[in-house]
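Thought: the user wants the 3D structure for the chain below. I'll pass the sequence to the structure tool as-is, report back what it returns, then summarize two notable features.
Action: structure_tool
Action Input:
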Amino acid sequence: MFFYNTLLILILITYIPHLTLRGKWHKGLWVQLGFWPDDFETHLKHPKNIWIHAVSVGEVLAIESVVNDLLRQYPHHQIILSTVTRTGNELACEKFKDKVKIIYAPFDFSWVVKKFVSVIRPVVYIAAETEIWPNLYRTLKRTNVAILQINGRISDKSFKGYRRIKPFVAKTLNTVDRFCMQSAIDSERICALGADSNKIEVFGNLKFDSVDVLNMLERSDYGFAEEDIVWVAGSTHPGEEEIVLNIYNDLRTKYTNLKLILAPRHIERMAEVVKLLDEGDLPYTRLSERTNQSRAILLIDTIGHLRQMYSLADIVFVGKTLKGVGGQNILEPAVFAKPIIVGPHMENFKNIIDLFSEGKAVIKVDNEKELAEKIEGLIGDESRRLDYGAKAAEIMQANRGATDKTVDMIGNYIKA
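Observation:
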């Protein structure tokens, strides 16, 4: 623990200047260090706090159904949701508004987490996916707070890293009361890292329950005609926007009814993407400034709207799969029965991509040339588009149910 705490201090010393130089320092970071406003403690005070932790946007979306069920079933409890990233915090505030207390999670220094735990005094602590915070977990355990890991997963990369420090990881895992893992592979991996097999259950992936066909959008509201072929490129990362725009520019002269919805993953990169559009002299409209006037390209420059935009699509490309590493969630377009194309990098969604590959419900490409070929092939083949979409929707339906199991399990600890 001495070396761990020393390492944390060294990371923080370099992290703060890095954030400052990149203009990413925000007031929430002071809270993460234990320096909070005078009303912070009053704001969180409640005799029955349920503390849920979700690192960023993906985790917040995954636990949405769990949070809503807990709010319904335990109206006399207060839910406190902590995030690490600013985008995750903003989305949580948008999703849950006044129903949940939203805070930034503490940095894992022993003196900081002690302050947080003493203020929140949770009846239970719930971490989304696989989170390992040694100081926080030790402090929670000393105060007899049950620690639950839900929607747990361990990627290939994380598993290799954790194995190198297995004794340290195992000691932290022993403080956890229950592991609810996404798959049998995740269960085997957490067990191999030192978790007690009697504490492990496989509940499936909450993300299958976190997306529903709600509020189908009208094409005419966004300037698209019924005969248009709408291609949504979602969650794109650096290098992918150039690829998408190059392909679109080549195809739009041949297919005049082809439209593009472009949604970069990180909102702070918007100026960079706008520059690409301007340099290419491509006609576009920002979602934040939209009218129902037709444009070739609709640029999604706001947080939290991509999921619904998939309902407008005829073809979907999910980003961070060609140029990024780790991939992105393909369930959001799948729930709308859309044909989905991904690149070779889906490391963080291995269980999901395996299911869709086995069900022939996703198209995989390795490079820009293959992406262009698959896009053009789908433009001219409506039956193929419908077939891929129908298979994707079937897989979604067959894998639902993790939320009910998870909420029942959490309820046992709340009542206890």
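Final Answer: Structure generated. The chain has two domains: 25-209+400-415, 219-398. The domain at 25-209+400-415 is CATH 3.40.50.11720 (Rossmann fold).
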